[in-house]
Amino acid sequence: MAGGFLSDWRNWQLAVAIGFVVIAGAGGAFAGSDYFLQIMVLAAIYAAIGTAWTIAGGLSGLLLLGYISFFGLGAYVDGLLFTKFGVNPWLCLLIAFAGAGLLAWLIALVTLRFGLSEDYFAMFTVALSQVLKYAMLNWDFAGRATGVYLTVVKDDFATLSFVDRKPYLYIALALLVIVILVNYAVQRSRFGYLLAAVRENSQAAEALGIDSGKVKTKAIVLSGALAGMVGAFYCQFATFIDPRQVFSLATNFEMLLGPVLGGRLSIIGPVFGAAFLKPLQDLLRGWLGGEADALYLVLYGAVLTLGILLLPKGVASYVEAWHRRRYGNP
Amino acid sequence: MPAEVIFQSLLLGILQGGVYALVACGLTLIYGVMKVVNFAHAEFLTLGMYLAIAAWTAGGVSPYVSALFIFALVCALGAAAQALVIRPALKHPQINQMLVTIGVSTMMIGAMQLAWGPNNLVLSLPWSGATFDAWGVRLSYVRTIAFLVAVLIAGAFWLFLKHAKTGMAMRAASQNPVAARLMGISVQRVNLITFGVGTGLAALAGALIAPAFFVNPTFGTDYFILAAFVIVVLGTMGNFIGALVGGLVIGVAEGLGGLLLGPALRQMVSLALFIVVLLALPRGLFRGKMT
User: Fold this and answer.
1) Given A227, A279, B216, B262, which is the most exposed site by the fewest CB atoms within 10 A?
2) Which residues of B touch A258 (CB under 8 A)?
3) Phi-psi label, residue A201: left if phi above 0, alpha if psi -120 to 50, beta otherwise
């Protein structure tokens, strides 16, 4: 077999993505400043969210535009269960996974069953994220606008709380690897081929006996559940969440920028997209300073608009073309 | 609860609904003609408010005069945005189209913040706070005028769509772009006009309500965009009359809902309605018919 393992585009992406994560982890070990680590952890979180999003937003072709609902829900599951009931945060990660998956299932139940067209589905998901925001803003138990604070006094792996920032980086990268592996496994599996069939031609897939609603439901549940888990981790890392932050539409679109510009059918797209864009955002913000927040918005909006117009299929499509030539695949 | 209070909320809801309708009819037309959900729509409303304030503070021009110029100016701006970024995106996947309008929205919020700062501004006419008595309810002149003008303009626009050549071309392009092109209609030109007029109407609505609200760069996103979405979905996306009816329905529902649940949950009412509408009437009040 010419080229062996790497001649398959998905295998090649897996190897490159995991290799990159390992390098990032090794690099993080030498990182001196907390500021730098902070950016790295956030980039890893964005990469994981982006990679999880592509399962529904890319592979299944759903217009899952309001994705932050799952992330925010996961963050609140962890924040509330940990601070109010003392539930172990590692367990919270799993509960957030299940909770966000349940939310995704409910969304699929109401939207797909009623045959909402793609535009309506997109608007519905955006509106839902804001419903959750207003619900949290008005819920006394969840701290209303002030949100939830976690107090961390000492490093404790058992409760996923560290004063030092470095352990968070390793855990964030571990979560990213999990999401990458799930995405890879989906693409390699029979389910992945069903997704491709539904995405490329839903009617033809139906004619072949594929239940496209069921396939899409599975995709959004898996995608949402993973985002919930990452959201729970984010709460542990940030030690402070509030509704305007974890259900922010601006953040929502920032999270989707990586996979869309990187390539929403790829694995390397969301990973490298976030690794490049998230630090760029933070550096731009830091460089322009708090006063020039407006200038940042103008620049960021321009990058978003131009990027999408110039790279409609994402950067990964060019890499894929190169890969095809390199390994001589048809 | 006294009937008087309910009546007051009802009237205020109708007043708000008229403005909603004017904002939503542009959004629904843009969707109808181009099948693009314009996430930047509310930013054009905010821009209209800022321009009205600028005209008032710089030259003492009343918003009811400057509104016309603002409409024309924003029409041109919207058409330029359509030509530069929306048109190239039309051949791309839907998610890209939506994200492009989100990019425009982000740029506009940033630009407005650069120009006018992040803090609340207000256009205080000498009679901004004046009210009159209508059937035992106190109504503000500003809100009433905004409602009447909004309804008038929406009506005039409806006549334009029905009888003017350009209006008929817009309806044709929205119903069947291919057939419209075969009939010799330049769909590209129609797209340009629709986006310009649609965003211009939002700015016009902004100028009309400028004396009644504090404005900051995210005003439109905070208070109008979700309501506008609910309205166009309720009225069937692309349906002009649907947007007008939907505007009034949502205005009243928010007014009464705010009364029952308290002002903090006012926004929840339209969002909850959105979900109910999507579930109960996924194709809107007009069963999926456009215009």
Assistant:
1) B262
2) none
3) beta
Structural domains of chain B, count: 1
Alpha helices in chain B (DSSP H): 3-34, 41-59, 63-81, 87-89, 94-116, 141-163, 165-175, 177-182, 187-209, 219-223, 225-234, 240-261, 266-280
**Global model pTM greater than 0.80:** yes
Q: Considering the domain boundaries, does residue B122 fall inside one? A: no
Tell me if residue B134 falls in helix, strand or coil. strand
Residue A182 contacts residue A226 (beta carbons within 8 Å): yes
Interface test with B, best of A285, A308, A310, A313 (most B CBs within 10 A): A308
CB contact under 8 A, A63 and B106: no
> Cα distance from A122 to chain B (closest Cα, Å)?
9
Angle, alpha carbons B105-B109-B115 (nearest 5°): 140
| Predicted confidence pLDDT, tens digits, chain A (330 residues) | 456 888 888 999 999 999 999 998 888 888 778 888 888 999 999 999 999 999 999 999 888 999 999 999 999 999 999 998 988 999 999 999 999 999 999 999 888 766 666 788 888 888 888 888 888 988 888 888 888 888 877 778 878 888 888 889 999 999 999 999 999 999 999 999 999 998 888 888 888 888 888 999 999 999 999 999 999 999 999 999 999 899 988 889 889 989 999 998 999 999 999 999 888 888 877 777 655 678 888 988 898 899 989 988 889 989 988 988 888 765
Q: Residue A260: inside a domain, yes or no? A: no
Which domain, by its residues, includes A109? Answer: 10-247
- Give the number of A-B residue pairs with CB atoms closer than 8 Å: 129
Q: Distance from B137 to chain A by nearest Cα, in Å? A: 30
The tally of domains found in chain A comes to 1
Q: Answer yes or no: is A256 within a domain.
A: no
Task: Answer whether residue A172 is part of any domain.
Answer: yes
Residue A296: list chain B partners with CB under 8 A: 110
Q: How far apart are CA B63 and CA B51, in angstroms?
A: 9
Residue B56 lies in a domain: yes
- Residue at B190 is within a domain: yes
